[in-house]
Structures are given as C-alpha cells and as structure tokens.
Amino acid sequence: MLTLLTLTAHCQTVADITQIALMKPGNDSIGVVAGDSAAQLIAILGEPDQISDYYSEIDEDTLKLYKYGKNNIFFLHDKLVNWDLSDSGIWVGAVHGQTFKVGDKLVSQNQNFRQKPGTRPTAQFLGFPVTHKTGISRNLHFDSACVLQLTKGAIQLDSRVELLFDRTNKLFSIALLD
Hints:
Shape: globular
Strand order of the largest sheet: 1-2-15-16-17-7-6-5-4
Number of strands: 17
Order of helices and strands: EEEHEEEEEEEEEEEEEE
Oligomer: single chain
C-alpha cells in the first residue's frame, strides 16, 4: 500500500519513492521503481515502441528515452530516473496496492456541506490533497494539481511526483521529476 504523510504545516504530501511503481495495466503484482534497470522495465512492460537518446540539460548527460505510446520513461546510466505519463497504457502505484492512471477522476470531499459561492469543493485523489489553482507546468496547462514530495526512507529527496488535472477533473499527466 502506498503510504503517504501529509504535513499540514507545509501543506505538502510526502511519499516514499520506493513505493511508487510503474505497472502494466491489469497487473499490480509487479512493478518497476526509480533506480531499476531498463531490462527490469522491459520484463514488466514489454518492449517499448521506441528507444532514443535524449540530452538532459539538468543532468548534463544523455539519457535513454523509452517510449510506450505517449508515455516517456528516462534512464541515466541504466537506472530509471524520470517518467512522464500522458496515456493510460501504464499504471502507477504500490505493488499489490492502490494504483491510478491517466484518465482517472478527482473525488470531491464534503459534498453534503454548503460551499461558498464561487468556490470549488475540497478534492482529493486517492487520499492525496489536490490544489484547485490553474497554472502551467512543463508547458502543460492544468486546472488542479497534486504534488508529492519524495523521500527514500528518512532521506528527503529533491524529486517529486506531479499529478495534473484538466477542467473536467480528469488526470491527464503523471510525472516523476527531479
């Protein structure tokens, strides 16, 4: 099960990177996580549609880009470092636990309570708090977002998982970013 800790003082959700896996749709019994090899990815998801080189200015190095449909998975020195998912061909979540995918919808909380005019209901996505504030991230326009700051055990990482939702409350982008 994906364990999350919400730090209310900072309005920040924290998740352990070792519990966030990429999985083949319909099979939550095995997944690939950050740090795994390209061979492990292929064993789980099958052969990619395309493999190419991708120069990363942030890393100042050439990454290997594995494309599965509209989904991009990046490796640096044969270690999974980032992913950017734009279609439902890959699931995300905890092995044998909660999973989600592009196309899933937000769930409103407090639906029985009266709202102030012009405000939206408090929302969550599988227990993750969602901010209703339009913006742009990675040149993508979004209406709502959820950012999970990542740890590895007790160590705080500079990485995060970003969930972006459109105006119909549909998840359209899931990305592991550093």
